[in-house]
Structures are given as C-alpha cells and as structure tokens.
Design a protein that fits this description.
Rossmann fold; 6 helices; 7 strands; globular
C-alpha cells in the first residue's frame, strides 16, 4: 500500500496491524534526502513504540523493542544479521522490530524479511529502491511504502 501521510498511518496502525500478525509489518521509507528519511524513520519508530506500549498495557505482550540500525557507513556481518533475525518478530509476547536505515549496503534485507516472515522497516534511497524492486517486484509490492519525493 502506498502511504501518503505518515500521521494518518499512525492513526490506523492498530486497525491494520494486530499483534498476532506482527510479522506482516513491512514498511519502506523511500527516496528523499538521507536526513529526511532518518527523521521520518524516527517518527515511525515512535509511532510503533506507542502502538506496542498500548498492546503491553492491555496485556497482549510482555516486552518490546523497536531498534534503529544505521547502515550508512557499514553493512551487516553474518553474526550481527543472525542475532537481529533471530530476535525479530513476536516470541511469546516479546516483540522486536528492527528498523534499517540506508539499506543500500544490504539490499537483500527487505526480501529476506518477506521470505522469512519477519517484521521490518527499511529506509532506502530511490536508486536503491529501484534496484531492489527489480530483484523481485512481487515481494516489494507487498510492503507499505512512503515516498519522500
């Protein structure tokens, strides 16, 4: 789904995503300047934390963490990737959602999340998105997308 307004997205978050189906949370922040994507990522992070805090207060989950992982100057080594991937998702009421900023260095991440049924938020340049989309447009088409330009 194409998201045109992040504030509206935040308002219907609880209607779109349910805790038991949190693995379906797949979100792309695309294009714009790198700092703009980071700022929008921070907004998405706070929105998700509010959503999860509400679920925690209702007793639907025990713990949660939404982590921003900045890949601007580095990629992910295999060990770090495996640790993140194992934690990702809902594990008996413990929720972990990774957010990857500047995924150009790891263009496989959105596709891996789709294949493995993992939640994730991915910030990517327009050029990186075009390249990723060409790898498997049907998977990327299942993501919620917010275009900055």
């Amino acid at each position: 789904m194409i998201i045109s307004d992040l504030k509206a997205w935040r308002e219907y978050l609880s209607f779109v995503y349910q805790i038991e189906y949190l693995h379906e949370l797949k979100f792309l922040l695309i294009g714009g300047k790198e700092q703009d994507r980071k700022d929008k990522g921070d907004f998405v992070k706070v929105s998700l934390e509010n959503f999860l805090e509400n679920a925690k207060s209702k007793g639907e989950i025990d713990l949660y963490e939404v982590e921003m992982i900045d890949l601007t100057d580095r990629g992910l080594d295999g060990r770090t990737f495996n640790e993140i991937w194992q934690r990702s998702g809902n594990h008996d009421g413990v929720i972990y959602i990774p957010m990857f900023h500047n995924t150009e260095r790891c263009p496989h991440l959105p596709l891996n999340a789709f294949d493995d049924g993992k939640p994730g938020v991915f910030s990517i340049s327009k050029e990186g998105y075009d390249w990723t989309r060409s790898m498997n447009a049907s998977k990327i088409g299942c993501y919620d997308c917010f275009f900055l330009d």
